[in-house]
Structure formats: C-alpha cells, structure tokens
C-alpha cells in the first residue's frame, strides 16, 4: 500500500525536464505549488510537465557538479529570461565562484534595459516587470570581466547579451552560460546600475609560459655566443645582439604578464604595456637596420669603407631608439587623449591596459 502511494506521488515528478536546457530552468519550492500541481514563479505559471527534479548543476565549461536534489521548472520556455549572478541582496565575490552574504539593498535600480526582439525591433523594457529573472543558476566562473555602465549592451530575445563595443560579429554575443547580471552600487554614488559580468575566456597559460622561458634561454645563449666570439662582433653581429636583447625584454614582459597579471595595479599594467611596445618597435627597427646594412654591403659601394663601424652603429642606434620612442609616445598621447568609455573613440585607441597589459590587437 505504502509502495503504491509512493509510486503515485513520484508519477507527477519528472527527472530532467525533456527538451529543456538547464540554463532555461529556475529553482522551485513547495510554497510556490498550486492546487492543480502547477507552480507560480514571479508572474508566470509553470505547468507540471515543465518541472523536474535535479541533483546536479551545470557549470560554464559544460561539466556537471553534484548538488542536493531539488525541483526546477522550465520557465524560459514561457518567456524571455534574464540571468542574475546572485540571489537578492547578494553580490559576486571578486575572483571567487560564489556570492557574498546579505548586504545592503541593491534592488533599487532603474531596471530599464535595451531589448532586441528576434525580428530586429528594439525597445526599452523594465527587467523586474517584463522578464523572467533567474537568480539561482550557479555562478558561471571565478574570473569575471565587469562591463562598466557607460558601455552599451543589449539583451536579445533568446537571452543572449550583445556588446556594442565589440566589432567582430563572431564574438559580440555571450550566451547565458557565459554571463550573468549584477546590480552594482558605484563608489560615492547613490545610483545602482545593472552591470553585465562575463567570464574570461579560459586559457591554459603554462604552455605559453614554458615556450617563453625556452625562447628567453635560447636568446640569451645566442647573445653569449655572439659576444664571446670575436669574429661575430662585427657591425651585423652587434646589431643582431641588440635585436636579441629587445626580444628578451619583450618575452620577459610577456612572461611577467602571464604570471602576475591578476596581482598588478592598473598603472603597473600600463607601464609594462608601454615598455613592451617600445621593445617591440625597437626589435623591428633593428631588423630593418640589419637588412639595410646588408643591402648596402651587397651593392659593392664604398659605404663600408667611408664610414667606421662605430659611426654607423651610432647612427643606427639613434634612428632605432628615437623612432621606437616616438611611436611609443604617440600611442601614449592617443590613449591619454581619447575616452575609453566612448564607444566611438574606443576603436581608435591603442588600448594599453584596457583589455590587457598590451596594445590591443583587435
């Protein structure tokens, strides 16, 4: 008899909800249950066939993680959902995949966002009233990039987010498993903004670090050979040593960025970026100098006889260091003059320290 009643009770509860993505579900509780077996969630009614029990959660990388068994409903099949990072009155903990304990109220924000329907129509909608809010999905990752309020973003009908400052059509959207939204109070301000937080692209840095170390070691050994053998200490050899030295400086800075990026201040990051740009430009200029000197030598003119090695090296050095310094000064002035918060000016900026501690390459 008890077994029969138990089986009848289970018959109304599914396991995973068929044809429903995990990121389209919300967590339900018994106090939301109606007499007909449906569940009331915010302003929608979720029928029994769109509910199911789960004993796992799915992370950003697609792996599942065991959690206590709980009931979920496929709410996003009944309307457009928007994903919050944390439950009410909590916020993300920096560099951790969790939310803080209860803090001061953060729900007193405007709530208006730009919304784009599938047919391309754009309009302003009020998040709490017009969208289904998902608050209980697992925090997607520990490393978040916060999009400041002055950047414009749009919510799409399918729940994705489009970023207006990204020009590459293949990467200007983030799906729901790659982002979440966090109400954020700004320093010395009473206003609260709804700010997107998306996950940094996962990268394995150790192969890069290993290759950089090997390159540095090989370059240093080559410099030692050139400096140790008198026959190689001619003008071409000295210029090549200068090229290798700037290559070592570049690799050392890249190694520093890969290892200590999370611990750098903004000013340290920018300083490394500008020094790295100077080293890069110097390296390319030394290659040009080597090519020019070889070309003059192959022409068979009296160029090598008319000017001493010391004189030619001095002239080459002035050209290289001055040109590299001028180019570095130019990008510094551009970065200092233009406003990174202006999406029209952002594409023209070298962007040292904006996305990384290096000149942006996109």
TrEMBL record:
GO terms for cellular component: plasma membrane. GO terms for biological process: cell surface receptor signaling pathway. Keywords: Cell membrane, Disulfide bond, G-protein coupled receptor, Glycoprotein, Membrane, Receptor, Signal, Transducer, Transmembrane, Transmembrane helix. GO terms for molecular function: G protein-coupled peptide receptor activity. Residues 1-15 form the signal peptide. Pfam families: Methuselah_N (PF06652). It is a multi-pass membrane protein. The chain crosses the membrane at residues 205-226, 238-260, 313-334. Residues 204-362 form the G-protein coupled receptors family 2 profile domain. Its main location: membrane. It is found in: Cell membrane. InterPro entries: GPCR_2-like_7TM, Methusela_ecto_dom_1, Methusela_ecto_dom_2, Methuselah_N_dom, Methuselah_N_sf, Mth_GPCR. It comes from the Eukaryota. Belongs to the G-protein coupled receptor 2 family. Mth subfamily. This is Probable G-protein coupled receptor Mth-like 11. It comes from Drosophila albomicans.
């Amino acid at each position: 008899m008890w077994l029969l009643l138990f089986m009848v009770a289970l018959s109304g509860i599914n396991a995973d909800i068929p044809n429903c993505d995990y990121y389209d579900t919300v967590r339900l509780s018994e106090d939301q249950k109606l007499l007909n077996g449906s569940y009331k969630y915010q302003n929608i009614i979720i029928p029994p066939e769109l509910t199911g029990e789960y004993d796992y959660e799915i992370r950003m990388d697609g792996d599942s993680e065991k959690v206590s068994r709980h009931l979920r409903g496929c709410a996003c099949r009944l309307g457009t959902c928007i994903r919050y990072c944390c439950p009410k009155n909590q916020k993300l903990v920096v560099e951790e995949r969790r939310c803080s304990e209860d803090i001061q109220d953060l729900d007193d924000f405007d709530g208006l966002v730009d919304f784009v329907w599938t047919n391309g129509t754009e309009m302003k909608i009020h998040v709490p009233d017009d969208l289904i809010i998902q608050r209980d999905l697992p925090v997607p990752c520990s490393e978040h990039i916060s999009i400041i309020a002055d950047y414009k973003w749009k919510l799409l009908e399918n729940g994705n987010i489009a970023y207006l400052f990204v020009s590459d059509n293949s990467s200007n959207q983030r799906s729901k498993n790659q982002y979440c939204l966090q109400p954020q109070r700004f320093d010395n301000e009473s206003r609260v903004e709804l700010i997107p937080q998306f996950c940094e692209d996962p990268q394995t840095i150790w192969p890069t670090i290993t290759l950089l170390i090997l390159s540095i070691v090989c370059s240093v050994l080559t410099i030692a050979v050139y400096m140790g053998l008198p026959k190689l200490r001619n003008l071409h050899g000295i210029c090549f040593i200068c090229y290798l030295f700037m290559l070592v400086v570049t690799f050392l800075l890249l190694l520093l960025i890969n290892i200590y990026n999370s611990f750098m201040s903004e000013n340290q990051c920018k300083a490394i970026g500008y020094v790295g740009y100077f080293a890069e430009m110097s390296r390319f200029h030394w290659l040009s100098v080597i090519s020019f000197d070889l070309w003059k030598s192959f022409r068979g003119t009296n160029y090598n006889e008319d000017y001493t090695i010391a004189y030619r090296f001095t002239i080459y050095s002035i050209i290289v260091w001055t040109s590299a310094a001028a180019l570095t000064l130019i990008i510094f002035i551009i970065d200092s003059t233009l406003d990174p918060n202006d999406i029209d000016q952002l594409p023209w900026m070298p962007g040292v320290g904006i996305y990384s501690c290096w000149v942006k390459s996109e």
